[in-house]
Amino acid sequence: MSHMSFPGEDASGSFYMPFESQASSSAFQMNPLSLHPPRTPRTSLSSAHPQSHGNGFSGYEGSSAKEESNTIAEVDEEEDLEEDSARLKLAQTRVSNEEVWREMFLTSNGRDKAFVRIRRCSGALKSNWARNQKLIQYGLKLYLLFHNSVASTQLLHRSKPPAWEQELRSRLSSTVDGLSRTRKCLLLFNWLAPLTAILARRTESMSMGGASKPKAPTPFLHTLMHAPPPVLLDLVHSSSDDVYTFSLLGLLSKKTGERAARFSDWCWLLATLVGLVENGVERQMIGGLQHEVHSRLYAESMANPGKSKPLSSATAKQDEKEMARLQKQDFWLQITRTKLLMDLIFVSYDVFRLQRWRDTVKTCAGLTSGMLSAWKLYDRHQQTLLKAATTLAA
Fold first, then answer.
1. Strand partners, 121
2. Closest CA to 36 of 277, 349, 286, 288
3. Is residue 1 part of a domain?
4. What residues in the chain have per-residue pLDDT under 50?
5. Would you say 71 and 311 are in contact if contact means Cβ atoms under 8 Å apart?
6. How many domains does the chain have?
7. DSSP conformation class of 38
8. Rounded Cα gap, residues 95 and 385, in angstroms
9. Considering the domain boundaries, does residue 5 fall inside one?
10. Which residue in 149, 156, 193, 170 sits closest to 14, CA to CA?
11. Residue 31 domain-assigned?
């Protein structure tokens, strides 16, 4: 059982957020109120600079004074791009891997990826970005599985293992169980985040009537039923997780906890499927933007270089930078899709009660999911440090 996360998970916490918001004319937002909205790619250069690409190369023709001013402006822009690239390379030499790991462990987000993660936010005990993929827990489980399988072979099989080996197994098993229970306790009250979002929408709807004609308060049940499905699913999922945790702590009966765990697994399965669908939509959008930029690059390469060569070179560098950004976004979307597939495999064993290779598959899937989450978090902290170092270098 795990806390669910949508693919936008990574906006302020967990999840890496490689995209930036678009303009209202080109924005894509599947669930406006969702705490895990789909990442929206930044407006492409075709919409940001229509005068450069919208009419082909006819804009290069005109008076000599206008051509000279445009050329000077584009040359300055090309110099800025080169300076940014130089500052970035200088920043990369200053930021070491050890510094990135230090920043990760200084934050509660990073500690979860390597151990158990919490994220504090104002007005709530923990944000909805907390995850339960723990590298230490699944690493120990994988070691125990490997150790038991090797020890059971005919070559190394012994009628009675030594005392130190039995004690090691017992200690590691106890550590894994302790980490699992600690994570569940740290994820308590995660339902406060979706509940706050629902109440915020209720307050917003009341204020839309204006000061002269205040709107009557909407019943909470009505607001709850009209909340976006991902937010409502998150609320129900977090609540069922808490019920299961209270059962583990002895506050509720074991039967109640088992039912809550079963219901929570179904919520996690649905959330993972929703995440895979949104991830596919985002990848289609990124693919379309890549095709658009690639078409512009091809058109610029086929144009007559002539006297507009400095201008064409600057715009080509902009398009190449845009293409690199889109390729990076698509790469992290593929990483997110792989993580969601691992989560789907993991939760499917619990939901459908599969038994074949259960421990091995669940352990490998959980460890892979945790490693991918840690990788994304590492990259996000690295980009933050590089940005700060670039600003200082400027």
1. 124
2. 277
3. no
4. 6-75, 108-133, 311
5. yes
6. 1
7. P
8. 7
9. no
10. 193
11. no
Secondary structure E strands in 159-225: none
C-alpha radius of gyration, the chain, whole number? 26
Polymer length in residues for the chain = 394
Taking the C-alpha atoms of residue 46 and residue 23, their distance in angstroms, rounded to an integer, is 13
Single-letter amino acid, residue 32: P
Residue appearing with tokens 């929408």: 201
Q: Output the six-digit token pair for 101.
A: 């790991």
Residue 193 lies in a domain: yes
d(CA 239, CA 47): 44
> Which pLDDT tens digit goes with each residue over 155-209?
666 777 788 888 999 999 998 898 888 888 888 998 999 999 998 887 777 676 5
Q: Write the DSSP assignment of 326-342 as a string of letters.
A: HHHHHHHHHHHHHHHHH
Task: Look at residue 297 in the predicted model and tell me its pLDDT.
Answer: 84
What element of type H or E holds 139?
helix 135-151
Please, which residues have CB within 8 angstroms of residue 330's CB and are 6 or more apart in sequence? Answer: 283, 286, 287, 290
Domain range for 118: 45-54+94-199+217-393
